[in-house]
Amino acid sequence: MTGYWCEQAWLGTGPVAxxxxxxxxxxxxxxxxxxxxxxxxxxxxxxLPGFANAHSHAxxxxxxxxxxxxxxxxxxxxxxxxxVAARLDPDGYLALARAAYAEMALAGITCVGEFSYxxxxxxxxxxxxxxxxxxxxxxxxxxxxxxxxxxDTCYLAGGLDGGGHLPLDDVQRRFADGDAAAWAERVALxxxxxxxxxxxxxxxxxxxxxxxxxxxxxxxxxxxxxVHLSEQPAENDAxxxxxxxxxxxxxxxxxVLGPRTTAVHATHLTDVDxxxxxxxxxxxxxxxxxxxxxxxxxxxFPQLRDAGAPLCLGSDQHATIDxxxxxxxxxxxxxxxxxxxxxxxxxxxxxxxxxxxxGALGWPDAGRLAPGQRADLVAVRLDTPRTxxxxxxxxxxxxxxxxxHTVLVDGRVVVSGGxxxxxxxxxxxxAAITPLWEGT
Length: 440
What we know:
CATH class of the largest domain: Alpha Beta
CATH architecture of the largest domain: Alpha-Beta Barrel
Distance between the termini: 52 Å
Largest sheet: 8 strands, mixed
CATH superfamily of the largest domain: Metal-dependent hydrolases
Number of strands: 18
Number of domains: 2
Strand order of the largest sheet: 3-2-1-4-15-16-17-18
Number of helices: 13
Helix content: 25-40%
Strand content: 15-25%
């Protein structure tokens, strides 16, 4: 057993001073308000439960600082994203994902949901191991010391317009398995192991025709099931034109929505869509930095919350990997859109960062500092230029990833003194990213 004495710890709905947390075999064994015991490790600042990054595309980390010089829209940005996707193989994917996940750990993220659709070699075909790209992600998360929910993504069509689904283009062929049955057969080959939940995903109603959706929902079979939903108005327009329904209604009719499902973005919804998501208990993952970077818009997140849809957060394309900043943007965007402050109070944002995200990723035993929970501890300093003078209960509105100094995942120290166990994460990122842009 190892004891940690926390200057402040987030218990329930707020901070408590002088808390002793005892960890045994990767779990929290005791939580008491008490003085430090001999041999306890002291954690200054505020100790929070581990953060859950509910939506990640690890390879998008290579796009940071590379796509801002030509303007355009989500659709023109996507072409540059596809250019990076076309250049990755399992070794390059491992190096990039390992470094991206290590950056997440530095930011207090203890679990990541990887929305994975780089399945096959460029141009199509199969690797000798049909899950070679997936195995690279699993190894990357293990190396970086974070838990992984692998959201293996069904991707079958090249898009959707008023005339129907479009054929796959050259880059998209590596995303596709042919049909939902073949996708499910490949996913079934993935073994269970510690630190991994194998989940599922529908890329979008653009990429999975309606007649294939029930098969994906059936294959999910109690696992987490995620889906990009209504990120762009063009998706809604195409879905209405061809199917005569909104994407949300299409998913509901196919049996995709429900308490194990998470809709990512959910930016452009009707009032009926909001009621459908809330009424089915479908979670919604907001990705505010990405939605701002790609000019997507501001989703109706308070309305979704009020309708019954649990909210969580993701860094998505990793314009920044800082879930504290994502939480703050969730509130900031609401202030800009509504003219009101406090649409999401600090305590609620902590819940969105922690327990809600872990629930969406299939880890119900994580996200709280309580006996029996996984020993995920994130210590954030209260004495930096950003946080000095803050009330601990409002730290989420001031701190950044740079203020995280210690991170435990399942009781293992992954970050200490602001340093990751892998060493210089910036160097790892540069080594993985630079070759992907050579000659472009």
